[in-house]
Structures are given as structure tokens and as C-alpha cells.
Amino acid sequence: MNPQIFPYQPEGEYYIDEGCYITELLNSPEDESVSIARARVLPGVTTEWHRLKDTTERYIILVGEGIVEIGDLPAQKVKPNDVILIPPFCHQRITNTGSSDLIFLAVCNPRFKSEIYENCRDK
User: Fold this and answer.
1) Rounded to an integer, what distance in angstroms lies between the CA atom of residue 70 and that of residue 78?
2) What pLDDT score was predicted for residue 39?
3) For 25-30, which contacts have Cβ atoms below 8 Å and span 24 or more sequence positions?
4) How far apart, in whole angstroms, are the C-alpha atoms of residue 1 and residue 10?
5) Is the dihedral of CA 76, 77, 82, 84 positive or negative?
6) pTM of the model
7) Which of 46, 68, 90, 123 is deepest in the core (most CB within 10 A)?
């Protein structure tokens, strides 16, 4: 692995059916150990129940407020600088309860690949 800088590319943002917008900040085969994405959830939106196979995910709330539901924990309010730890195979979703976008980083290890994503609509 060589030192690199990955410039932020806002034009790379895309919508996923889960119910949010994603910008990949770091997701490279050159660094299998981690990926970092910027997630944006519109006001009033709740993402779909989902889980990640064999991958630990962390949400780091940057802007906005919401309610996160993970595993069997009761729903919890979240705000900027809160960190949410989501173990592998743990169902999860987040709701934007504010009047502006909810923005957070999703940090996965090992790195996110589409085949690890599982929708849990029938949770």
C-alpha cells in the first residue's frame, strides 16, 4: 500500500434503495481493511432494515439528529459526534427526525462490498 490522498468528490453521490444518498470516500481493493462512506438521509426518512455479513460498521454522526435502531437495543436518539457500533449480522436502520439532512460517516471493516449487504424487510 502506498500513501495516497482521496479527494472528496461530491458529484459521486448516488441514491440507494435503502433510502439514503451515499458518497464513497474510501473504498479500494488496495485497502481491504476499511471503507468510509458519507451517508445523507433526508428529513422524515427512515432507511430500510438491513445488515452486513461479516462486517462491523460504525456510524459517526456529523450533522442533524435522528433515531437509530440496532439489534435488540431500544431505539435511541443520536446527534452530532455520537458513534454507533453495529456488529456483523446486526439488523439496523436510522430515521432522520430533524428538519435538515442527517449526515454521517459509515465506517466498515473489512471494507464494504455489495455482496455483504442484506435487506431485512422481513426482520
Assistant:
1) 12
2) 98
3) 25/105, 27/111, 27/112, 28/111, 30/1, 30/2, 30/4
4) 25
5) positive
6) 0.94
7) 68
Phi–psi pair at 98, nearest 5 degrees: -95, -175
Half-sphere exposure of 64 (CA within 13 A, CB side): 25
The full DSSP string for 36-57 is: EEEEEE-TT-BPPPEEETT-EE
CA 17 – CA 121 distance, rounded (Å): 12
pLDDT in tens, 35-52: 999 999 999 999 999 999
Q: How far apart are CA 90 and CA 108, in angstroms?
A: 13
What is the predicted pLDDT for the residue at 121? 74
The set of cell numbers assigned to 54 is 461479516
Per the listing, cell 430515521 goes with 95
Summarised one tens digit per residue, pLDDT across range 20-35 is: 999 999 999 989 999 9
Other Cβ atoms within 10 Å of 51 Cβ, number: 22
pLDDT score recorded for residue 108: 98
